[in-house]
């Protein structure tokens, strides 16, 4: 199993550009999340999904959209990039929807917005 | 006040030392608790879950005090390979993926 994969690994955008960060998991996990991590800080939840067709906002959703058309994929769209969105983005998946399960993270996408 | 607060660190200790990290959480309805380890510029990985009765995994011991709303992680006989950032994670919601992370405590173990 590849686990959780993310592409691209690195990305540089100009202010106002849009792009999609890809995330896929091959563990048949129901639950997927997107986090951002700024320097010296913990992870903050952007959006999450409890299954295909169901998404909801996390702590810092503004400027981002998500969709979940399949169990495997959970892309994150930046609508109009801003320098404040410079961060490392991690996608995670969890088996089931109980609060006791381990989260598995992808390797991250390092995004710089100029 | 942040929902999850950790010792700011950094902790610099010699090999073989014992080091303890603390984490406090503000929501008394929190349901589950974890310690994740994050190596520099890598993704977080689960170190251990934290149970009310306390749990141990080799040199690592995690404790939960619900009355005082804090979690601790004890590392005994520190190794160079323990150098990392340790993230305290709390789930209040019923869903594991909707977690609240502390800012992390960085540990450097020196020869």
Q: What would you call the shape of chain B?
A: globular
Q: Give the low-pLDDT segments of chain A.
A: none
**In DSSP terms, counting alpha (H) and pi (I) runs of 4 or more, how many helices of chain A?**
0
Rg value of chain B = 13 Å
**Strand residue percentage of chain A:** over 45%
Structural classification of chain A? mainly beta
Strand content of the residues of chain B, in percent? over 45%
What is the typical, i.e. mean, pLDDT of chain B?
Answer: 92
Helix content of chain B: under 10%
Structural class of chain B: mainly beta
Termini Cα gap of chain A: 36 Å
Q: Taking Cα atoms only, what radius of gyration of chain A do you get, to the nearest Å?
A: 13 Å
Which oligomeric form is depicted? heterodimer
Overview of this structure, please?
The complex is a heterodimer of chains A (114) and B (111). Chain A has 114 residues and is mainly β. Chain A is built from no helices and eleven strands. By secondary structure, chain B is an all-beta fold. In chain B, a hairpin with a 4-residue loop joins strand 7 (60-65) and strand 8. The termini of chain B are far apart. Chains A and B meet through strand 4, strand 5 and strand 9 of A and strand 5 and strand 10 of B.
In brief:
The complex is a heterodimer of chains A (114) and B (111). Chain A is mainly beta and 114 residues long. Chain A is 0% helix and 49% strand.
Topology of this structure?
The complex is a heterodimer of chains A (114) and B (111).
Chain A: E1 4-7, E2 10-13, E3 19-25, E4 31-37, E5 43-51, E6 54-57, E7 64-66, E8 76-78, E9 87-94, E10 104-105, E11 109-113
Parallel strand pairs in A: 2-11
Antiparallel strand pairs in A: 1-3, 3-8, 4-5, 4-9, 5-6, 7-8, 9-10, 9-11
Chain B: E1 4-6, E2 11-14, E3 19-25, E4 32-38, E5 45-50, E6 55-57, E7 60-65, E8 70-75, E9 84-91, E10 99-101, E11 105-110
Parallel strand pairs in B: 2-11
Antiparallel strand pairs in B: 1-3, 3-8, 4-5, 4-9, 6-7, 7-8, 9-10, 9-11
